[in-house]
Design brief:
This protein is of the alpha/beta class. It folds into two domains: 234 residues, Hexokinase, domain 1, CATH 3.40.367; 166 residues, 2-Layer Sandwich (Nucleotidyltransferase, domain 5). It is 40% helix and 15% strand. The strands form three sheets. Strands 1-11-10-9-12-13 form a six-stranded mixed sheet. It has a five-stranded mixed sheet with strand order 4-3-2-5-8, with helices on both faces. The chain has a two-stranded antiparallel ribbon with strand order 6-7. Helix 2 crosses helix 11 and helix 11 crosses helix 13. It is globular, with a radius of gyration of 24 Å. It starts with 17 loop residues before the first helix and ends in a 10-residue tail after the last helix. The structure holds alpha-D-glucopyranose. The site of alpha-D-glucopyranose has 16 residues, from helix 5 and strand 10. One of its GO terms (biological process) is glycolytic process.
Length: 499
């Protein structure tokens, strides 16, 4: 058995020469976000969330989702859920059971080929429909299925006039497929299903954050916000219709709840308040959608490794310090070659001499940093990871402040939340600083606003939202459902009836 790793390292800058120390100090100035700044960001954030709900709108889309209820735990039926995430495509079949809050799930994962993200719309929809077909053939060979309701988790900003339709505003998270932006994504998707004669009816188009909120609320009634800290970052919460000026023309009962997909990755696209570094500016310029997702580009998993790479490359080229002097930096020059997992691994190195970090850098970049350079590398990873966690807390705090919620549970999911070391505790500490909690709070467990690992939002959450849609259609509450008649005539309507 390998020897147990020491739990943490103290680290020391004692042997770091002056030129490198100067650089470390400069990086600290750039990346550390003090409490006062977090508060300023949060206050501006609250105003922007409000602006997004108005008719004029702002840069945060605050998309109305037509998910208009929390589950009560007694939803039933069998649903398909499709999750088109960044890396994988997942198909699930979820049976919501009679027992409160219980469900069965079977699922298959398919790799999302990298080429698909920059390919054509046809290739995308054909691939997605092929995966669904494979799933049905594998699990239901020869069965007569009737029609199965589908919750489709499509985790990109979409304006929804109806729960079962959505116009993609713009791609995020590095996707760049022509001919989809500005259009309804449902018809081409349904056409691909029809071509294959699949017995599936898209019942709800769901954002991963809304799914996360609903899935988490299925088992925890204190849950009020669903968040993703992953490849992208975003949150959803339940608003009341009366506080959504851009819905006023619909004359909905002002007390009805409406889930809002904030799409707050777009916060501060106008660059008013976020402390952007020169590296953040490069990330934006070189991305497929410059000027978009300003907040997301500073904190989401897709960008953390790239920020780190850009800083190291800059320090190599900087005549004042020249790290990796005389070495071949060709691998370091490759954009997006380092991911958030790489940064996590550096932050997880428990050894005083940073031997694991040395291995990682040697392996991945064919570079041999000196001991002081390793100290700088580690500090840089901490700075980038800490900034991400602290800025992330601003979004959650802003929703709580906007809604005057002093306490609540927040369901969170995503690779950064689940895997990045210290992310949770750094986020909790930042919430404490922003929301002025007393000493002893800010540790996560038992905090007034507690960010907890979520239930499976894009699987169970999407199924629940499909269930809730059928349930309210049957109850005659048909706002935001494109063709309620058809839904009520379909065999799926039985899932909306309480027995
Ligand atoms: C991006 C998407 C958003 C999604 C988030 C997390 O911000 O635009 O829809 O919720 O990533 O996956």
């Amino acid at each position: 058995m390998a020897p147990r790793k020491p739990p943490s390292r103290k680290g020391s800058m004692a042997d770091v020469p002056k030129d490198l120390l100067d650089q470390i100090n400069r990086l600290e100035d750039l990346f550390i976000v003090p409490a006062e700044k977090l508060k300023e960001i949060t206050n501006h954030f609250v105003k922007e969330l409000e602006k997004g709900l108005t008719v004029e709108g702002g840069s945060i889309p605050m998309n109305v989702t037509w998910c208009m209820a929390f589950p009560d735990g007694y939803e039933t039926g069998t649903y398909l859920a499709l999750d088109m995430g960044g890396t994988n495509l997942r198909v699930c079949e979820i049976t919501l059971l009679e027992e409160k809050g219980e469900f069965d799930i079977i699922q298959s994962k398919y790799r999302m080929p990298e080429e698909l993200k920059t390919g054509t719309a046809d290739e995308l929809w054909n691939y997605v429909a092929d995966c669904l077909q494979q799933f049905i053939e594998y699990h239901h060979e020869g069965e007569e299925l009737g029609q199965m309701p589908l919750g489709f988790t499509f985790s990109y900003p979409a304006t929804q006039e109806y729960i079962d339709h959505g116009i993609l505003q713009r791609w995020t998270k590095g996707f760049d497929i022509d001919g989809v932006e500005g259009k309804d994504v449902v018809p081409p998707f349904e056409a691909a299903l029809a071509e294959r004669k699949l017995p599936i009816k898209l019942t709800a188009l769901v954002n991963d954050t809304t799914g996360t909120m609903i899935a988490s609320a299925y088992t925890d009634t204190e849950m009020k916000i669903g968040c993703i800290f992953g490849t992208g970052c975003n949150a959803a919460y339940m608003e009341d219709c009366g506080s959504i000026p851009k819905l006023a023309h619909m004359n909905l009962d002002p007390s009805l709840p409406m889930a809002i997909n904030c799409e707050y990755g777009a916060f501060d696209n106008e660059h008013v308040v976020l402390p952007r570094t020169p590296y953040d500016i490069i990330i934006d310029k070189e991305s497929p959608r410059p000027g978009q997702q300003a907040f997301e580009k500073m904190i989401a998993g897709l960008y953390l490794g790239e920020i780190f790479r850009l800083v190291l490359l800059d320090l190599h080229q900087n005549p004042d310090c020249k790290i990796f002097e005389g070495q071949d930096v060709s691998k370091l020059k490759k954009a997006y070659s380092l991911d958030a997992g790489f940064l996590s691994a550096i932050e997880e190195d428990p050894f005083e001499n940073l031997s694991e970090t040395l291995d990682l850098i040697t392996h991945k970049l064919s570079l041999t940093p000196s001991k002081p350079e390793l100290e700088l590398i580690r500090r840089l990873a901490e700075l980038i990871g800490t900034r991400a966690a602290r800025l992330s807390a601003c979004g959650v705090a802003a929703i709580c402040k906007k809604k005057n919620w002093a306490t609540c549970h927040v369901g969170a999911d995503g690779s950064v939340f689940n895997k990045y070391p210290h992310f949770k505790i750094r986020g909790a500490q930042a919430l404490k600083e922003i929301l002025d909690w007393p000493a002893g709070k800010g540790k996560g467990r038992g905090d007034p606003v507690e960010i907890l690992p979520a239930e499976d939002g894009s699987g169970v959450g999407a199924a629940l939202i499909a269930a809730l849609t059928l349930k309210r259609a049957v109850a005659g509450q048909t706002a935001g459902i494109k063709d309620p008649e058809a839904l009520l005539k379909s065999p799926m309507a039985k899932f909306g009836v309480k027995e």
